[in-house]
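Feature request, filed as a ticket because there's no other form

It would be nice if the structure record came with a short human-readable summary line next to the tokens. Right now we just get the raw output. Example of a typical job, pasted below so the devs can see what we mean:
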Amino acid sequence: MTDEVYSLQEIGEDEELLSFSSSSQEQACIGHLRGDFGRGTEFWTAWWDRHEELKGQEFKDELDHLVNSLRESGPLKDLRSMERFCREHAQARMSPKAGTEYYGFRVDTPQRRYYLRFLPLRGNYNFYIYCYQTDKFERAAELPPKEVEMSDKITVLVVEPMKPCRVQEIPNTLEAMGQVVGGRIESFSYQREAIISNEESKFLDLPLNRPLYDGSGTQIDMLRGTFFVAGVDGEHLTSLTDDQLQHFKALYDSIAAERPVAQEEIAPEAAMPDFAVACQISFRFTREDQENPGSHDAFISHVTEIFNQDQALAERTVGGLDVAFQSHCAEVRYTFARQDKDTASAEMFSKQCVLDVRDQLEGYGCKIEKIECFAEELEPDYGRDQVRGRGTQEKKRKGNRHDR
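Raw output as currently delivered:
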């Protein structure tokens, strides 16, 4: 395994679908890895399970080795390396139906097949690796295609930023789906549903919308721009059932990603309870020279300055920032004061305030790995006097450093 050299083969037109979220060999798909280079030289990834029972330790080791090999001197080293690699393999450019900027490759190992999709554009997700188990893949290819009756129209749930969800019937075509999301589509599939969003939402800096959850209910990303939820049957999108509509409508109508422009118009501030929100931001440093006390102090000053400059954070952060360092990581803890309709809304607002300044926070040379917010409702006679309006002098203190 350690001496394995991986050869990237350009894929044919009949294989393009396999480098996306769904395929006729779906039962053979272990899962997929998505990643980006951040500002060009960073390396961030997220993994989605498709069939967790296929994800043994041998597969994990093989995938790690594949990715690390391609990072050492290949197209996954950084954005510039990927751009150069794609220029040198112009014939790997995928057909217009898949998106003209994409480049498709394949890697075969004795037990698995990996489909790699590259998009060498800054500010977007730069690569996807779809992982298939070869024996299941080949057996699925031998079976006759599943007959699925394609409807001319499907019933979906459309979710726009800061608006209630709406049920809509749309034509079952790529063109119509692209019109809903405002561009080329990207899908994230669960077992029975799929979330369809704009492939370039991050690159276009579309408005933040709602969280994206994995199959276990853990938030893994924030969706941008308008998206919709549809049913899934193999490689085809279908209408949502009444139960599916009810589930996702209840989920997404209860949260909103952007800050309300006029919260007072939604509910008078005096009518909403007070919450103390315990917040923790987990950072990972990207440079070795950031691991010294002087750099730690500079990091604390950087974060504190951003909190002081942002109106929502400056006005609602109670007390100072508590900063702790360990190895290549840092944790920033603080209490956020918020009046809202319930704990979930208070937590979402608190988290969104951090997301609004994420680029500035990461400008120091670090990456936010996790934002956690836990709201607790306060007694009516305690909330406003103790949490709101403690004054800015204490809030603007430099955070305390606690090395662990």
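Something like this underneath would help us a lot:
Residues 57-73 form the longest helix (17 residues).
The radius of gyration is 23 Å.
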